[in-house]
Automatic annotation (TrEMBL), chain A:
GO terms for cellular component: external side of plasma membrane; receptor complex. The keyword Iron does not apply. The box 1 motif is required for JAK interaction and/or activation. Residues 25-126, 127-226 form the Fibronectin type-III domain. Residues 1-22 form the signal peptide. It is found in: Membrane. This is Prolactin receptor. InterPro entries: FN3_dom, FN3_sf, Growth/epo_recpt_lig-bind, Ig-like_fold, Long_hematopoietin_rcpt_CS, Type-I_Cytokine_Rcpt.
TrEMBL record, chain B:
GO terms for cellular component: extracellular space. One of its GO terms (biological process) is positive regulation of receptor signaling pathway via JAK-STAT. The keyword Signal applies. This is Growth hormone 1. Keywords: Disulfide bond, Hormone, Metal-binding, Secreted, Signal, Zinc. Residues 1-21 form the signal peptide. GO terms for molecular function: growth hormone activity; growth hormone receptor binding; metal ion binding. SUPFAM superfamilies: 4-helical cytokines. It is found in: Secreted. Belongs to the somatotropin/prolactin family.
């Protein structure tokens, strides 16, 4: 009892002393791994725990699972330091090995934890051998063919072990490897590598149930410099298109004129006869317009004669007409044609003699067309009124007229550069308004004004030359007799002709018919005549433009006989009596008696 | 005429043999593939089992690890390459047959131990596969015997402890693990034997790779 206790105490003291001296039993070793490279042998490695300051020896002991016999490691050297190598004879498959390592030194020993190992499941083959990477040139492009050998120790031929291979590729600068599984074959083709670059290749293998081997040493391969088929195709396409574009541009350049014609068709320039573009460009409008004027047209001479021919003498009936028209005088005074651009020759010149406005207040006695020139000349009405009872036809008014203005003959206010005048019989239908007035004798003037009112003709036909207007006819005759000198300006037409207004069409045109027979009854409504003319307009030169119209239809123009009489204004000019109750503010042509169209004549001063 | 007849019959025999041989080859390849699949299945099962273990269960398992006492321990099987190389093909086939047969019945309890996607669809999937493989191997054996009398004594050996595994509790963690481990090991054995046998009999198989 005492001895054991003393021994214990002594041991304890010894240990303490030893520990104080720095020596101790060995530390616990640890088995790190056991591996079999070919499923025939295997090796185990351990890690020493610490030698405790004293030389320590290690021993590995194992026993199989189904027996208790403990064996020691047969070979400590083959595999190196701290290892135990089991050769073929000592290796049994499908059997668990219970392995422990014991470390022992002078002071004691230490046993590691046991490890159960089944050799079949710890297979880790050696690395593949003889890895080669070769560039193969193909029509599709070059690629790399990597080939290798199996690890020497692995027996795949007998089927004892089945190996699966894997390789990886990357460029030097890349971080990630590109891995490829090669299966059981010993070569692999790597595509899609960039040209002119160097690649690193490594291979490893694994049994069907086991661990991957280590990677082989790096094998380098350099890709040749080549142009991919795809890129070369794109280059060709680009060149082709550039070529096409160049050709097109050159062609367009050569044919630019015709292209221009095609794309931008020429705009036809103005084709006015006598119109000179250059003059227009120069900016002198006067010259331009002057060129448009045809010299000698219309004949501006002998207006007086012309007018004189057509002067009419008014009698008392006219005065009645004048009285009736009195009411309108005020209206007419107030209204002025805004478009009257008469420069001073009297409102007879203008197309838009204020007949329209004057007609507004008229009720049916369209006879009084009171118009005022821009110059404020007195109305006819005033003159008329002053001479209500003057038997002299038109004389009071005409006498009073300080410058009566003839009514505008023409309804159509459009100025036409061309003067359209009828030929032949229509020639005598020129009416030059102002000159007529100027040259008229007071009597003649007074009786020979003719006021044409152009009323609203759209709905109604104008009726002319009522039987009641016969008086005017007589005047006409008077006039005609009185004026027997043909206007020299009318040389082309030696005979004068009265023109009868037959109808005014909706276009505000006065359809005239030359009166070949003075005794002709206006009521006859002779429709067989071909020659009549329609008044087209009054020009700025105070010329009444008549137009011959052959397609006339007979119209009953004589329905408004009374109005005819009432409408006759006591003007020197011979007015054409119109009947229109519409009162529309349009120019109206007044027909007197038979209704010759007469130009407006300025009222001579009464 | 006789000679010609003999020649013709020889030719036919050769052809038939060749046909049979090619058929045999195909069967062998098929058997190898099947057993390989079974082995992979077993490996997956045990992995799933281990993954589903709780940490303390894992510790418990490692401590009491002895994986001995598999059902197939009674079957004498080569345990090394040399032994395997020395064994005849017929022997290898027979051993394989026995191994597969030994698992036919216990495979039913295998499905109970591991509930994973492998066995969900068909609980008897494993048993059916084993049965098919067993039949294939028997055909191969017949082909290999080729008229020779059956000298194998092991055929009549009764399977010891049929309910060997059944006596172990199903809920026992250790037993479950052992069951799975034994299954995996046996499948690997069969795979190895069949591969070796296949490579031995035909040079143009994958063995030369």
């Amino acid at each position: 009892m005492r001895n054991s206790g003393a021994v214990l105490i002594l041991t304890f003291i010894a240990i303490l002393t030893l520990q104080a001296a720095g020596v101790s039993p060995p530390g616990k070793p640890r088995l790190t791994s056991c591996r079999s490279p070919e499923k025939e042998t295997f090796t185990c490695w351990w890690e020493p725990g610490g030698d405790g300051g004293l030389p320590t020896t290690y021993a590995l002991y194992y026993h199989l699972e189904n027996s208790e016999t403990v064996y020691e490691c047969p070979d400590y050297r083959t595999a190196g330091e701290n290892s135990c190598f089991f050769n073929k004879n000592d290796t049994s498959l499908w059997v668990n090995y219970n392995i422990t390592v014991v470390a022992s030194n002078a002071l004691g020993k230490n046993i590691s934890d046991p490890v159960e190992v089944d050799v079949v499941y710890i297979v880790q083959p050696n690395t593949p051998e003889h890895v080669t990477a070769v560039v193969v040139h193909d029509e599709q492009g070059p690629f790399v063919r990597v080939s290798w050998e199996k690890p020497r120790t692995a027996d795949t031929r007998s089927g004892w072990i089945t190996l699966l291979y894997q390789l990886r590729v990357k460029q030097e600068k890349d971080k990630e490897w590109e891995e490829y599984n090669a299966g059981m074959q010993k070569y692999y083709n790597v595509f899609s590598l960039h040209p002119d670059k160097e690649y690193m290749v490594q291979v490893r293998c694994k049994p069907d149930h086991g661990f991957w081997s280590e990677w082989t040493q790096t094998t380098y391969v350099k890709m040749p410099d080549y142009i991919t088929r795809e890129r070369s195709l794109w280059i060709m396409i680009t060149i082709f298109f550039v070529f096409i574009v160049v050709i097109l541009t050159w062609t367009l350049n050569v044919k630019r004129n015709s292209v221009k014609l095609c794309l931008l068709p020429a705009v036809p320039g103005p084709k006015i006869k006598g119109f000179d573009k250059q003059l227009l460009k120069s900016g002198k409008s006067e010259e331009v317009f002057n060129t448009l004027v045809i010299q000698g047209f219309p004949p501006t001479t002998d207006y007086d004669n012309l007018l004189v021919e057509y002067l009419e003498v008014y009698d008392n009936e006219e005065q009645e007409l004048v009285q009736d028209g009195k009411d309108l005088s005020e209206d007419c005074m107030k209204s002025k044609s805004p478009s009257d651009i008469d420069s001073g020759r009297g409102s007879c010149d203008s197309h838009t003699l204020l007949l329209e406005k004057c007609m507004d207040g008229r009720e049916g006695s369209g006879s009084n067309q009171h118009q005022y020139s821009q110059h404020g000349e007195t109305r006819w009405a005033s003159t008329e009124s002053s001479e209500s009872q003057d038997p002299e036809p038109g004389s009071p008014e005409s006498a009073n007229g300080r410058g009566k203005t003839w009514p505008v003959v023409f309804p159509s206010p459009q100025p036409q550069p061309h003067h359209h005048y009828p030929v032949g019989a229509a020639k005598p239908a020129y009416h030059s308004v102002p000159e007529i007035l100027n040259h008229l004798s007071p009597h003649a003037m007074s009786s020979n004004y003719h006021q044409l009112n152009h009323q609203d003709i759209l709905q109604q036909e104008r009726r002319f030359s009522k039987p009641a207007c016969r008086h005017s006819q007589s005047y006409n005759q008077f006039n005609l007799d009185g004026i027997d000198t043909p206007a020299p300006g009318v040389a082309p037409s030696p005979s004068l002709e009265y023109v009868e207004v037959q109808r005014v069409n909706p276009e505000n045109m006065l359809l005239l018919r030359p009166l070949s027979d003075p005794n002709r009854e206006p009521e006859g409504s002779d429709c067989t005549r071909e020659d009549y003319s329609k008044v087209k307009e009054v020009t700025s030169n105070n010329i009444l433009l008549l137009q011959r119209d052959m397609s006339h239809q007979c119209v009953d123009d004589y329905s408004q006989a009374d109005q005819c009489t009432t409408q006759q204004p006591p003007h020197p000019c011979k007015p054409a009596v119109h009947q229109s109750n519409s009162g529309m503010p349009q120019e109206a042509i007044r027909v007197m008696g038979n209704g010759y169209v007469d130009s407006t004549v300025l009222m001579p001063s009464y | 005429k006789k000679i010609s007849k003999i020649l013709i019959s020889l030719v036919i025999c050769l052809l038939v043999n060749q046909g049979r041989a090619s058929d045999n080859q195909r069967l062998f390849n098929n058997a190898v593939i099947r057993v390989q699949h079974l082995h992979q299945l077993a490996a997956k099962m045990i992995n799933d089992f281990e993954d589903s273990l709780l940490p303390e269960e894992r510790r418990q398992l490692s401590k009491i690890f002895p994986l001995s006492f598999c059902n197939s321990d009674y079957i004498e099987a080569p345990a090394g390459k040399d032994e395997t190389q020395k064994s005849s093909m017929l022997k290898l086939l027979r051993i394989s047959f026995h191994l597969i047969e030994s698992w036919e019945f216990p495979s039913q309890s295998l499905s109970g131990t591991v509930s994973n996607s492998l066995t969900v669809g068909n609980p008897n999937q494993l048993t059916e596969k084993l049965a098919d493989l067993k039949m294939g191997i028997s055909v191969l054996i017949q082909a290999c015997l080729d008229g020779q009398p059956n000298m194998d004594d092991n055929d009549s050996l009764p399977l010891p402890f049929e309910d060997f595994y059944l006596t172990m509790g199903e809920n026992n963690l250790r037993e479950s693990f052992r069951l799975l481990a034994c299954f995996k090991k046996d499948m690997h054995k069969v795979e190895t034997y069949l591969r070796v046998a296949n490579c031995r009999r035909s040079l143009d198989s994958n063995c030369t790779l």
